[in-house]
Specification:
Helix content is 17%, strand content 43%. By secondary structure, the protein is an alpha+beta fold. The chain has two domains: 130 residues, Roll (Diaminopimelate Epimerase, Chain A, domain 1), CATH 3.10.310.10; 123 residues, Roll (Diaminopimelate Epimerase, Chain A, domain 1). The strands form two sheets. Strands 1, 2, 3, 4, 5, 6, 7, 8, 16, 17, 18 and 19 form a twelve-stranded mixed β-sheet that branches. Strands 9, 10, 11, 12, 13, 14 and 15 form a seven-stranded mixed β-sheet that branches. It is globular and about 55 Å long. 44% of the residues are buried.
Amino acid sequence: MTIAVPIVKTNGTGNDFVIVDERVAPLDDPVAFARRICARDDGGLGADGVLLVGSSQHFDARMRVINADGSEAEMCGNGMRCVARYLDEHDGIGAATVETLAGPIGTRIIERAPYRIAVEMAEPRIGDRIVLARGDGGAFDDVTPVDVGNPHVVIVVDDFRDIDLAVDGARIERDPRFPHGTNVHFVALRGERIDVVHWERGAGATQACGTGAVAVAAVLMASGRAASPVMLHVPGGLLEVAWTPGTRPTLVGDAVREFERTVSI
């Protein structure tokens, strides 16, 4: 039997998603749905993941994140901004608290034309610096693991020409030191400018990563290389992170609704 599912295609700083409101159209197999709808070259709409909006007993809503490969992420900062816009437009909730696998996350609409949204993220837990092998036989020696409700590794390099994102990112994502996989972020410091490229667990190269932006900002602030608020230049645009150690950081960025339609499954 064919089922019609309303979807919203959206993105946060270029990190793109398909939103499905399971309060309206629950999915029997969200993993299979995500793999099909996220495909960019096989009849899908093309996306980094699917955001499932559901009911919550204690908060305004619940968000699940299914990556393009069908794996489930604990949290997604850019996706949360997209869900916050959805809840604002569809439920009239301008300041929402959303249940996630990483715990409850607060959101606040800063402005609507265009949408600019603040997300209260999980407090970063910064690990000890480590060394990781490079594909060319050398080593990355400025490497810091960070937990922001999901796993990240922040790698500061002199120049992005020194890396092969697809090769180095994929290898580090599956490094045995990260038994559940990890999100990988390469950072280049160019005076006052901070550039970041991302390799996300379960999605590959993306235009932006919200939790990754928090991880990067936390490492740079903790090591004295940046001060709050931190502006990060990512392939999809700009992300802002404000943080004082001992508190929860705030991620600020856009949320773009690309289109709404109904798909058949």
